[in-house]
Amino acid sequence: MSKFKRTLITTALPYANGPIHIGHLAGVYVPADIYARYLRLKNEDVLLIGGSDEHGVPITLKAKNEGITPQDVVDKFHGIIKKSFEDFGISFDVYSRTSAKIHHETASEIFKKLYDTNKFIEKTSEQYYDEENKQFLADRYITGTCPKCGFEKAYGDQCESCGTSLSPTELINPTSMISGNQPVLKETKHWYLPLDKYEPWLKEWILEGHKEWKPNVYGQCKSWIDSGLQPRAVTRDLSWGVPVPIEGAENKVLYVWFDAPIGYISATKELTPDWEKYWKDPETRILHFIGKDNIVFHCIIFPIILKAEGTYNLPENVPANEFLNLENDKISTSRNWAVWLHEYLEDFPGKEDVLKYVLTANAPETKDNDFTWKDFQARNNNELVAILGNFVNRALVLTQKYYDGVVPEHGELTDYDKKTLSDISKIKAEVEKSMDSFRIRESLKNAMDLARLGNKYLADEEPWKVVKTDTERVKTIMNISLQIAANLTICLEPFLPFSMNTLRGFLNLEKMDWVKLGETELLKAGHKTNKPELLFEKIEDSVIEAQLQKLQDTKKANELTEVVAVPAKENIEFDDFSKMDIRVGTVLEAEKVTKTKRLLKLKIDTGIDQRTVVSGIAEYYKPEDLIGKQVSILVNLAPKTLRGIESQGMILCAENADGSLSIVEPDKKVKNGTEVK
User: What is the CATH architecture assignment of 389-516?
Assistant: First the structure.
């Protein structure tokens, strides 16, 4: 028996500078919705909380680029996101936003309490400042060369090539993404949350107290804690966000990672005056449904904030998922490489449940998974149509044909009949076992076993043949088939709510609670069913080809897009350029640098000498394809050690619109050592 009387489910707040795509759905919103619907069917006290994350630098940049206000940006995308969720059937009890007054008040109150109880450290430090735009730069808006692996487009907080966490001042050749200029260091005062002070508590609370958490979640938490936590700023020099509510903090706002999770609390306040019951009563459990990129915030930072505040419950579980890729490529909003929810709903009207089914059946629960349109088609045609739809249609059509839609009374049950009916309860138990452990993909498979059970039963019993010789036996076969169909309306309700509502219409049934699942007389003899239609329809090749063509067009558009990533840099004198000694050389040897994704170790004949160069091009060139290729190499660059290898120069590459690199090479073979001028 659970020690909890109620459950509060939160979903990661989508960032309101763009619409929702299938990666968001698979990682967060579909599993959270399924679990909430499951608990509601069990008549448990549950709230599903959501909202838009509307603060931070990306929104101010988007507003600046479009000549509108940040509020205009978030109003537009909050509306798009909210409507998409509603149309798709994500059953939020409240969908709020962090620009709301109640959120600003709640975040300010929590900050103020931590400030008044001396939970923060006040520090003056140097931060990068864009002199042209007269603003301090968020870590993500500074790029440069990673000091660990040499990747030239590392962000100020993390290198996406080697995964190393960084601070902006560690970057080599830092550049402002806003102006393209080199930023300068300038003093500023901020308040820090001393995460390191909570390490002993975290070790006890997570590493000892929550070993049941998913391995990917527990493992990431352990890695962060074992690496040692550092104080983290909770304020930022920005104009858009929740103003820091203390004197001496003018023109500063709460850092978005601090205020965003507090949005769960403010949204609950917006929903109900009894909000404290869900946040402070120990008989409530809190579940955070998120993607893996948010694990550290929801398992370490937000719990530390709540622990420091002292009156709130901590999360009981954080069932985070990994990432979903699209057609074997990482989903990218900047490259428009995504299936957008609002576009899907336009292209596939009435097929909300098909996408829910596919995303759940292929959910990235323990590792990254891939969405392909061919798999989408196959799962629809081979599972929803051929298994679930086929069984339901045969059971109802035969009932119409033999009994004018009236449920017949069953006769004496055979051993096979009894086993089939008893299997319903066994399937129920398996669904519950998986669901209660947050193995929702497995739970769907178990639930679909009920449709497989019905299909097999009809195929084995063949009522269309038996009716010619034993009309009484057919009554029993059809009665049992209809009982399975009625049980399906409960078992699949969390996963396919639109379709099960349609099926209840066919069966002329009211919605039933989970406790009814497993009962074998949900439909009484004499009950009148309605004329059925197809529950699902086949998706033709032409429909899928159209979606694949749309993606192909996107890929071509990306390839043709001109690279205008940053403005041209400041003019230099000819003498500055003349200092660079660029030569043509030939690659003699090439091999991958171990334990890196992007680095190749090259041996190059420069015409002057033979030297080693480490280059971040491993994702775009195979070592064997480079041998014999002529390249342009900067030979008078000061040597630098990367992954224990001294790199004696740099080869020149052009960066394409999609971020890929192309080596700059002469269009015809020239002598090694030839100067590039």
Answer: Orthogonal Bundle (1.10)
Q: What is the DSSP-derived secondary structure letter of residue 524? A: -
- pTM (2 d.p.): 0.81
Residue 9 CB partners (closer than 8 Å, separation 6+)? 32, 35, 36, 46, 47, 48, 49, 287, 289
Q: Are 593 and 626 in contact (CB under 8 A)?
A: no
**Residue 565: predicted pLDDT:** 43
- What is the rounded distance in angstroms from the CA atom of residue 611 to the CA atom of residue 649? 8
Integer-rounded Cα radius of gyration of the chain? 30
Q: Mark out the alpha helices in 437-527 (DSSP H runs).
A: 440-461, 463-466, 471-491, 497-507
Q: Are 666 and 586 in contact (CB under 8 A)?
A: no
Question: How much is the pLDDT for 571?
Answer: 66
Quote the pLDDT of residue 384.
98
| Amino acid occupying residue 215 | P
* Positions of the chain with pLDDT under 50: 562-567
Please give the distance of CA 224 from its chain centroid, rounded to a whole number. Answer: 20
Asked if 162 and 178 count as a contact pair (C-beta separation under 8 A), the reply is no
pLDDT at 375: 97
**Which residues are CB-neighbours of 638 under 8 A, at least 6 positions away?**
none
β-pair partners for 243: 253
Please report, as a single letter, which amino acid is at residue 200: P
Instruction: Please give the Cα distance from 440 to 231 (Å, whole number).
Output: 36
The alpha carbon of 640 is separated from its chain's Cα centroid by a whole number of angstroms, namely 37
What's 574-663's CATH class? mainly beta
The two domains 119-236 and 389-516 share their CATH topology (first three levels equal): no
Domain boundaries, the chain: 6-111+257-324, 119-236, 389-516, 574-663
Q: Shortest CA distance to 253 belongs to which of 51, 55, 53? A: 55
Instruction: Look at residue 377 in the predicted model and tell me its pLDDT.
Output: 98
**Which H helix or E strand runs over 280?**
none
* CATH code of the region 6-111+257-324: 3.40.50.620
| Residue 567 confidence (pLDDT) | 47
- Phi, psi (degrees; rounded to nearest 5) at 427: -65, -40
Quick: pLDDT tens for 58-113: 898 888 888 999 999 999 999 999 999 999 999 999 999 999 999 999 999 999 99
Buried b (16+ CB within 10 A) or exposed e, 452-476: ebbbebbeebebeeebeeeeebbbb
Residue by residue, DSSP assigns 73-125 as HHHHHHHHHHHHHHHHT---SEEEETTSHHHHHHHHHHHHHHHHTT-SEEEEE
Q: What distances in angstroms separate CA 424 from CA 253, 418, 490, one per listed residue?
A: 56, 10, 11
Pairwise CA distance, residues 103 & 89, whole Å: 25
